[in-house]
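User: I'm putting together a teaching handout on how multi-component assemblies are represented. Below are the sequence lines for each component of a complex, exactly as they appear in our records. Could you produce the 3D structure of the whole assembly as structure tokens, so the students can see both representations side by side? Please keep the chain order the same as the input.
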Amino acid sequence: MKKIIETENLRTNFYTYEGVVKALNDVCITVNHGETFGLVGESGCGKSVTVRSMMRIIQSPGKVESGKVLLFLDENGEQEAVDLLQQSESYMQSCCGDQISMIFQEPNAALNPIMSIGEQVAESFLFHRKKSLSEASLERLNAQDCKVPFKGIFKNLYKKYHEDENAFVFKLLSHIPLLNRWDFLIRQEAFKRAVEIISKLGIPHAEDIAVQFPHNLSGGMKQRIVIAIALACSPMLLIADEATSNLDVTIQAQILELLKDLKKKHISSILLITHDLGVVAETCDRVGVMYAGSLCEVAESRELFGNPSHPYTKALLESVPKFHQEGALKTIEGNVPNLVTPPAGCRFHPRCKHRMDICDKEVPNLLEIGKNHSVACHLFGDK
Amino acid sequence: MEKILELKNLKKHYPIYGGVFKKEINSVKALDGVDLDIYRGECLGVVGESGCGKTTTSKAIIKLHDPTSGEIIFHPKDHKDSYDIARMKPRHMKKNGLRSKLQMVFQDPTTSMNPRMLVKNIIAEPIIENTNIKGKALEDRVVELLEMVGLTRNHLYRYSHEFSGGQRQRIAVARALATNPEFLVLDEPTSALDVSVQAQILNLMDSLRKKLNLTYMFVTHHLLVVKYISTRIAVMYLGKIVEIAETEKLFENPVHPYTNALLSGIPSTDLDIEKKRIILKGDVPSPLNPPEGCRFHTRCPFAIELCKKKEPVLEDIGNHKVACHRKDEVQELISKKFA
Amino acid sequence: MIKNHPKIKELKFTLNRIFTNPSAIIGFSLLLFFIVVAIFAPQLAPPNTKSHNPYIVPHEGFSATPKQPSAEHLMGTTSGQYDIFYGVVWGTRTAFKVGLFVVSIAALIGVMLGVIAGFYGGLVDEIIMRFVDIVFSVPLLVLAMAIVVAFERDIKYVIIALIMVEWRNYVRVMRASILTLRDQDFIHAAKVMGVSDIKIMLRHIIPNGIYPVMVIAFMDIGSLVITASFLSFLGLGAPTGYADWGSMVAQARNYIVGPTGEMFKYWHTIIFPGGCIILFVLAWNLIGDALRDAFDPKMRRQ
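Assistant: Of course. Below is the structure of the complete assembly, with chains in the same order as your input.
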């Protein structure tokens, strides 16, 4: 199977007043082409920090200490790995939205309240796909029935832009008022595509929605728009960070259905981050379970929920109410540890029922115990 | 079964003022005619989407706001009389000893406790307000409460920020229990907690209810949690109750199309169970101008002309109340449409 | 148990936050210096035994030209032969008097009205805040002039004028901080427990919402001294010869620039009282800054 993104021993710390929070402890995850990978864990377990470290959007006082984030790009049929942590800021900018897109929990924070929905979706096209847009506008200009004043000038401009987008004249034009609107046909084209993608997401009356502002829309609708922005440039990987957690059950079902549907048609992989085990079970192909900054178990979803192996995964599954719940819920004693002073060795050992002598001395490695099933626990070592 | 609370046609409209003279131009109908009986000793789960009025109902009962109209009749245990508390002044409630009987546990324990007070004072406050216990007896009572929720005397002299989320919620429970209440409103008490701690609090609440013969109103949007802890469930939609039944009955045989959609939308970890998923179209309409007729007809897959015109009433079909015009044929329609 | 009482621990923690901040250390040392000067004023500059009011600066002769610092007059004399050293030392007491009096009374009024307006809202809020708006439209200068014309030039009328305009700021700040607290769950919880409104305000609202007011109050102590000085400078404050930094600067206003060729001849008439004002204001501002950092909930531990 072809990999799409991989982290190697990712380690992130937060330097706070209280001390150094060791938020990530050598996290290695791999997302393959064509799969939905779910990352689950409780709040503060580092699942969000993992993807934020991957995308290099860790907020201060956080810092990625070591590790690699490899993005596999298809280069003439051969896979080429790029370490995102070594790339320049501008590379990340062009990569985000084009190859990788992200959607967050709070759609309100992701949308600009004073821009119309259509413009916001179009912005993504303008940033990443201006060249192909100029081609489309050129075609429009060449059409017989096109009525644009100064047609000849625009034709030349767009042709030139298509040939060399970094030409001096465009830099000059972009600084002159009024003349910096030379690309209005491109903008129109982008808006048209924006309407298209909004209607593709199953939103009725896309034309009407596109001219509305975020405050006119409901929470579920806003989340769809955020997804539309993320999908605008058909990325290889969509990262959804608690994308449905704030929504109501019926709306969540709509959005999850939408994501499943989109994965089939448009994007190759989804990295889904959530604390809801049910959501993961129903939408993901492969699941990684995190606890206190380290990865405990990775397996295919059916295998993980049918045959959980790590004591934490087992306990977590037993502590969540199920549809056919029998008897009382089992609880996990104790609390999530403070990551300023994480427990030595396996970070779960103070709460673990199968604790052994080795657990508080050595950090367990992720071991393959079955087909596509790895566990980081000393119970499975040396066998 | 003995009733503890009766809600009769309870309404809460939040007015919206407009114009220079601030006249009422419209109102948000957060609660629009709720009839509900709550029986002593039960745990009534109230579920629905955000804005359906579940929190407004619970806050009306514990008198955090005054309802616009309707009655809330409270039958306290040791009183001969019953009281309509819907329009009773807080002062009078306290004088009649009703205030201490109705308590609440809030969603987020971080914000529901004064960050500048010690645990001892947090728990002692309601006792001082409602009884004459002082000094050593007071401290003993506080320790007793702490032990009841699984904490110890060592936790007395600490601030709430020194505790983890689960422990904080235990303190909040201890505070709610301090005045020996009969009725507790639990407003999403586990949704701010970690998944692994949620079970601890749920089990604690369940055992406390049985031990102290409490009555709960458990407000949540998490259906599996409500299924685990409740004995009876009311489903709300846009300010009204659409279905109410005992937990087992509701989950085995949901009647209202909205309940069906809610239950089918629960993401579950049991992968082996085949499910018919009913995906509703569109969003909840605005409570400013709720739809005519049945409020659910705009999203209902089985709406007919009658639904748009006439509002269905909550009818009893054998210990199971539903407000739907097509209640007799819903199951058939679902199996036909979503097979 | 008492030794490690959490309230003491909390206090220690806050103090630790304050005194690890360099600006706080500078601010508090400056303040300490001024306090010492104010306390030992009779020893540093013994008042004339004949004078019934030690705040009146002694002067020898009536010559308008200031004299240079000498052994007799450590900081020289200002116009009218008033001793600058005496004025600066006793002026410290005046500065504290003005700052502390005005701020404590204004803050008390402001906090009370702010809490009532914020907590009850509605009509009460509307009435109080509109009244504050009216007070905001009264210019300090006009008010001070009216008071001085009606009564006489004296430091106590400066204090009264300042109190009359200063409280309005605290009402707004306190109300804003109450509005965010009012809908917090712990206030609801207190209401459900049957705690009376007054107790909720005293026990839950004020202890949590007072911090922004405290920070601006500390900063105001400094800036009020500037305002008082400026009133004195305009002739609306303390009378000539009163030990007040502002009026001392005012007295020297004709000697800010010396005669031709000797621009800085009379530097001492401005630098000593003016420098005191600057350092005094700086001290309170640094302290206010440090307190803001210490109370900032974002920077406090969880």
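A couple of points students might notice: Chain A has 14 helices and 13 strands. Chain A has three domains: 3-111+235-284, 117-193, 290-380.
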